[in-house]
Structures
1.
Amino acid sequence: MSSDGVLFLHHFGGSARSWDAVIARMDGIETIAIDLPGFGAAAASAGPFDVAACADIASAALRLMASDRLWIVGHSMGGKIALALAARQPYRVGGLVLLAPSPPTAEPMAPGDRDAALAGWGSLAHAEATLARITAVPLGSHARALALDDMLRTGHAAWRAWLEAGSREDISALMPHIAIPAVILCGGNDCVIPCNVQRREVASRLRNATVVEIPDAGHLLPLEAPDAVAAAIRAGISPAGRMA
């Protein structure tokens, strides 16, 4: 019997453990969540931190997986990296699930917001304000503490690299190389990368993309709506709903 495996790529300011609640709902499926360079346990990484380099790290993780069919799940920053990886048409990968992905074009961000984020590295007050702004569903104490801790332990070089360069990279020329289907999940109350941006900048550039809105949720879908995220992944890889 063939088996399924899922590789998880986290958001900016997150880590592999951002996926803990989703992975806990993935019984029977091989899962790997990695810390991208400069984040989580890899906070001390010297880089490089560009999208292609992060896709290299993700590609190496894919090759370690034992399952017959693989799926790439990426959130926000991790969504852009997932798109870059999928464009390489890696062996055994059957589909993408993108959670509020940073688009393949430059991520829309007001200059003032970018400057504030750059200045906010390592600040608990900034982390708390950011968490309050980007979430629409109240987080439990454990999820809140985890999200704040991950933001505060992100390496300075990686923090600056994403805000100054990675989020601005335009990899849209790679999108025609993506042949596998993609499900794009977006929060109905996402103020960071709203559903209309997902449809315009992501879905429209892919051959076979479906946008699914999670009502009431904000930007941190793995923490705000782990049940809905896990259900969407399972639906995509189930025999009845398998992306093909």
2.
Amino acid sequence: MEKIAIGPSGMQGSRLAVGCMGLGGGWNATPVGPADVAQARRLVEAALELGMDFFDHADFYSQFKAEEVFGKVLRETPSLRGRIVLQSKCGIRIGGLDGVSTGHYDLSASHILRSVDGSLARLATDHLDILLLHRPDPLMEPEEIAGAFRSLKEAGKVRAFGVSNMNAGQIRLLQASLDEPLVANQLQLSLAHDAFVDSGVTFNHASRERAVWFTDGTVEECRSRRIRIQSWAPLAGGNWSPGARSALEASGRRHAVLPEAIAVAWLLRHPAGIQPILGTTRPDRLEACVKGLEVRLDREEWTSLWIAARGGPLP
């Protein structure tokens, strides 16, 4: 599988990434068991066989168990660590779970440092390749975050830093205080969440027929800064509109692949160089999605899929 640069860091990872949110046995207090470890092991082995070496985590996924079970796999086979790119995220605190009664976002230096130490312990590694700030914190202080990043980098605990779900203005504000460039921004992008495209063509359009929630200029800001755009939920959990589903199935028949491969190919065709984060825990689904790398959608077919998903013609 093709390797791509992860921002201006010099680091490279697979064109498609594995999202590990579904590992660990679910969002409950049930301890990790042998079946959960076996599932994680199968996923890692299948991904590597397909050429996928990039694994995406967050500290609280499956109530902190996703990282824990992944760490058990790495403890069983320590040589795996040198073969993978390991990314995790921090900043979301869950009420009743993370020592707080009210869920909120926390990008204070103390929380970032504590979260990274927790992730490293659970993942059985001495460093993260990439740390993302999971959600914008309305109370974030860029200088404080910069200090936390500096401490983590100097301690060898994190190689590079990025963000998730941040818009262009937030990126500019944060980057102004950082010692080095951000390398990634993970956003909800898919054929079902196409506002990253729609926001551009409906700009200055007198009768916007749809609400556009994606902040204008975010994709362009990332591209101009060489920040790698990552897509979470690239398959939208299969929640396609009837029109989108029909178009995906028809395109899949033309290219002799499953609809999820077309959904992946649609994102890959965008010139921003989007890196889809595939959240499935099933090796067969991973393999189906990887087929999207073999599909090259021309401009007309790409646009036809988009129009089917948006439910109406372009302005």
3.
Amino acid sequence: MIQHSEDKKLNLFRSLFKGREDVFARRWEKGNKRGYMPAYDYDPYMYRLHAMKGGTFKNYEDKRYLPLTDQQLQKHLNGEQFIGIYPLLPDNTSWFIAADFDKVNWVEECRTLINVCTENEIPAYLERSRSGEGGHVWIFFDKPYPAIRSRKILKTLLEQVRIFSVFEKGSSFDRLFPNQDFHSGKELGNLIALPLHKPTLEEGNSCFVDEQLKPFQNQWKFLSSIQANIHS
């Protein structure tokens, strides 16, 4: 059983990092290869029979997505698995938008983006990524907001401070989450890794940091102070 204090933490975490609840992804590593793939529920025995006949997991039809439950999130926070969520909801809205930076100038450019967001009265927050060599600037909404609008706003701000341009190749800016205005009808859209994975957090990564890049001592207290952007 999750203790009451843990239950409060889980509710707070879930209130901020909202994506699709019918599916989530797990990080995997095999040799030098790594990535994420959707988590599925399936019968291993039946799948082995399928594979013995030359089938692959991709064309194995008797599988379904695992939903993102409290138990799955708790496993992420405990370090039993590393989860990624899909921010673009079926109606092409999202509860947040985040910008990913992962090259040499990521610190400076994250700060620049946060400053211009502050100037425009948009609360924005910096998370150092899992690798420790990049960052995510998060902007949260009080309710799902059309991705086409949030992406346009953020791209405008990035262009305003000359971080993003079709002609600029030296920027540390990589992509937005979500990275699509609309669903293609075939895919889930891009995913973003959730923060506060215990082993990574203990290394000073996958956590929110201040202007000096120091992790907030109490991540949960910090999360409770986050302000969502209100829209009508």
4.
Amino acid sequence: MKILVCVSKTPETTSKISFTDGGSEFDTNGVNFIMNPYDEWYALVRALELKEKAGGSVTILNVGPAANDAVIRKGLAIGADNAVRINAEPQSALFTAKEIANYAKSEGFDLVMFGKETIDYNGSEVGAMVAELLDMPYISFANHLEIDGNKATISRDIEGGTEVAEVETPFALSASKGLAEQRIPNMRGIMMAKRKPLTVVEPSGAEDLAVTVHFELPEEKSGVTLIEPENMEELVRLLHEEAKVI
């Protein structure tokens, strides 16, 4: 089975976020970047498990500048066979999807995998767009995946229960929590990653129609008032006089 796992670089969740140039540019100074956890922990690891069970190959793909290579190399250290970086600075999900699809069209992948969302933009857009551009079935938010031959059985949580779907390869899928368990690269994997191929591909020329105009930080959360369980009168007073309805 030939699997493509699309990965993103995101700020670590503890990073302090700020903006420059009047709020139009993300300030990367002092920010520690990581591979998007949904891409790494669930999509990539499940892809590797499928390869270990049935054979094949796992390619990781990123759309971004050379600064992303360190994050890509981590994916190789975890176990991916090779990596591709499309050398572009995407401004929108659609541009990213077009570049991924334009690369994947001629590669004959049986399965294209994504994390369910990135932890910075939380858009959940790229996977569905790529599937549409490649004319593939798309299953989102998968938390269980089994493949037997060319038929896959996929489970995902829905309101009030679990949905089970069956689909034949090739198809695209976004990975949610539960699809796999995080793997930590060992020293052997880290050393081998240095010798694995990371191919840089120039962008296909897809037009990026999005322009970032302005970023805004959310309002800071207000403090929390703690009330002793016995002091119900004070709690009622605060709810009447100071509590805000959002």
